[in-house]
Amino acid sequence: MDAIAAVTHADPYPYYAELAARPGLFFDAHLKLWIAAGAADVGAVLGHADLRVRPAAEPVPAAIAGGSAGQVFGALVRMNDGERHAAPKLVLQRALGALDLAAVHARASAIAGMGLADAPVALSAWMFAVPVQTVASLLGFRDAQLPQVAAWMADFVACLSPLSGAEQIARSHRAALALLDSFKAMLQSSAPMEGSLLAAVLAEAEAAGWSNSHAILANLVGLLSQTYEATAGLIGNSVVTLMRDPAKAALPAAVLVADVMRDDPPIQNTRRFAACDVQIGCARIAAGQAVLVLLAAASRHAALQGAQHGAQQGYGYGRGAHACPGQALSQTIAAAALEVLLRDGLPAPMAWRYRPSVNARIPEFIQDQETA
Ligand code: HEM
Question: Which of 282, 372, 289, 363 is nearest to 120 (CA)?
């Protein structure tokens, strides 16, 4: 086991607990990464201004630089610090913060109700389709466009994974272009639909003086990509929790989802890169070195400490300047989806395995005999 294999391991949590109990950051010579696992260390890393979201020498991964996917990646608030982060982040935060969550819940329920089937493969497809289609719909895409937007997004996110090969990267560039074009078409055809998330982003961008139209378009694509895997994973890990402990079906869906964010979260880690030599406690991180930040380990560690010393918040949505602005949105979508799933009782017991990933823990439901 190492901190990356842990992401898709059947039960990484005893291992994470061991790592979180070690005081301070430590260097994993095999992974060539610093590891931050305890709650205080994870907080310190995420709060440090010289620990950046991308390596200075490679703002866009070499594998995708030069193509459309790379152009989107390079403009995302998630992948920038400083000026290209601050104002755009505020814009997204305000636009997402103004969403009417009751309307989001209704939209997600309607979409979840359309594609639900009980075979394992269909369940896996459904948990991916619901979040991205809901956010696409909130942005202003028409119902008939939603499956196409979801399919493009499935192709696009391959550019975010170091595990993708040349063919996947090529599809990712094509999808990025198609997504940018579809947003452009929406903007040109008419004024953005009143009350839509798109209209809110544009209004907030104008108010904040953010006028880089390529960056705005890229970050609209970014809202879909940030939604896509993480929220599917939240739904999937909630289903896994129910398979393991069917009594939890009696919990309100919102409570179940919040518990899963703490105990079995979809985004298990993130990374930071030292812009100069950085000292965190006894650890000296040299300029250019990377830190693997074990969000999932820190959430459980914080919960343990909270049980001893009072309430502690989780780390599943990050912390500090880059903290996720989609928390309420993702939990509302996941809860709505689970309510639809549980309307006719629990699905029949199923097996699952985890999709290959270095940071996201997302189950894939399978027929029992496939596990043998
Ligand atoms: C369960 C679902 C989700 C999880 C677990 C999640 C998790 C995270 C995490 C851990 C980060 C911080 C990464 C870092 O600091 O390195 C982040 C950032 C971000 N998330 Fe989410 N997210 C989820 C859903 C969403 C949704 C639905 C949206 C919007 C539609 C969204 C938008 C963003 C954006 C824009 C950022 C970048 C913020 C920044 O860099 O300042 N996320 N998310």
Answer: 363
CA 221 to CA 218: how far, in whole Å?
Answer: 5
Cα of first residue to Cα of last residue in the chain, in angstroms, is 22
Cα-Cα-Cα-Cα dihedral of 188, 192, 193, 197, to 10°?
130
Instruction: Give residue-wise pLDDT tens across range 255-278.
Output: 999 999 999 999 999 999 999 999
Ligand 1 contacts (CB < 6 A) are: 53, 77-78, 89, 92, 96, 135, 222-223, 226-227, 230-231, 234, 265-267, 270, 295, 316-318, 322, 324-326, 329-330
> Tens of pLDDT along 311-343?
677 999 999 999 999 999 999 999 999 999 999
Task: Delimit the domains of the chain by residue range.
Answer: 59-268+323-371
Give the 3-state secondary structure of residue 271: strand
Indicate which residue's Cα is closest to atom 27 of ligand 1: 227
Query: For residues 105 and 334, is the Cβ–Cβ distance under 8 A?
Result: no
Ligand 1 atom closest to the Cα of residue 323 is: 12
Query: Which CATH number does 59-268+323-371 carry?
Result: 1.10.630.10
